[in-house]
Design a protein that fits this description.
about 550 residues; alpha/beta; Rossmann fold; nine-stranded mixed sheet; 19 helices; about 25% strand; elongated
Amino acid sequence: MIRTISSIACAIVCINATCCAADIEDARCSPDGIRGTLIIVGGGSVPDEVPAQLLEALGESGSIVIIGDASEDAETASKCAVKWLNEHKVARAKSIDLPVNQGDRATTFATMIDHSAAVWICGGQQSRLADMDREGQLESSLLRLLNRGGTIAGTSAGAAIMSKVMIASGRDEPEIAVGWDLLPGAIIDQHFSERRRLGRSQIAVDRHPHVFGLGINEGTAVIVTGRRIQVLGQGGASVLLAKCEYRHAEVTRLAAGEVADLTQLRRAARQRASKIDPGVPKNDATELPTGSLVIVGGGSMPDEVVARFVELAGGETAQIVVLPTAVSREESSQEGVPGFLKTSKVAGITVLPQRGASEVESEEFRSALQSATGIWFGGGRQWNFVDAYEGTEAVKLFRDVLQRGGVIGGSSAGATIQGEFLVRGHPLGNTVMMAEGYETGFAFLPGAAIDQHFTQRGRFPDLLPVIRRHPKLLGIGIDEGTAVVVQGSRAEIIGLHSAHFVSARQLSSAGNTEPLPTTVEEASKLYVSVTSGDAIDLKTLEKTAPR
């Protein structure tokens, strides 16, 4: 018999089930991350912050389901969990009834979880949890709980079971099994430092390079909400990425209070598994086959730059599409026509805030781009463009505009996205020049890595490590209020200031093993700088006559 305790503000239902998680295909690689919240505890003492998280999840009347079946004695494990929850005032359970019928336990579990706000998964042996969910009913109910914004918490085995690729056992050599696909794209390991499990996690990740490893120390909780991963408690956590042909295996340690980005880590693992080095251009030449680019370094939009963009788009007959999606969905939905285009005499301007495959496939989005003669990428953070359009038909529609002889322009983030290699793409901040997982731009200008706000923010030293690591790239830094207008391999500089170009040839003068300069004054000496009104050949970096 299972009974929900109605005499307490927050009911606790303990259920013990036995069946195995189905190996369902992960189709939830959303830039938004997961729905709901995961509280993943590495074993040992539970951090003080966890009860508060559970209280918030339960609200005034929500119930919590306790899964004790990772333990040999599920009933004792469940009662210990109840006691712990009571001690922390998460609930005040007076009694608990456990099911005795083994046959319907998975179905009972799923039913109770469908009416709960949270789940607590006790420690023990994670293979027991996997074995009890042979039909996948329990996993499905947990995913439904997340999708409606619920919370799933677990410790030790209750943490390890949360990843589809699951380390079931093994001190040095991991035994891999199928867990529950709650934290997509990960392999979770617990008691990480205390039981010296780095080695086995590295082996597991190397065998499954499409996922990242997440090792959690005792006394530590990793909270995952959306795409945000935060470490809480007394210990820390480690993120592991597999070695690949062009990068060594990497371990990043996160201390309590530090955060990571789930989508970035998933993308980094998948990039490594693809064996495609984003720093190697697909073509040897840095030139534009057809059409034109107007790449603006941020800041003001001088009349000369606006006039050139409109001219290249067709002047009075121009059909311009504006993409404001370098900012959040909420902000982009409120964006209108940019101020610098409002007075332009063109045939039409359409703002497209759509993002993601389902929205991009709309007739409005497709028809606007099919008739466009010019596209403008707005400012913000360039990784938002990647999340908005990568893997959709949008990028092809963008390139079609160039193939028809049109123009693509953009400022700040809208400049950087035009390069083949994306710099400053980390979702957690714009100081990381090479953010693995977000290193691929839309390659309108092949072989280029484009930076902006260049002189004004003292960014001369920043591009040098990018070019040293990826010597086939051309680094382009553009000042504010300045545009690089590209046609073929010719780049004309217009606007207020200058653009700056650096290749492996310039870096060779600094020596391949010598430290790169870190001051603006010394770093700037390695660039070919071109002032407004002049032009340069992108293949040779020799200055040419303006048009």
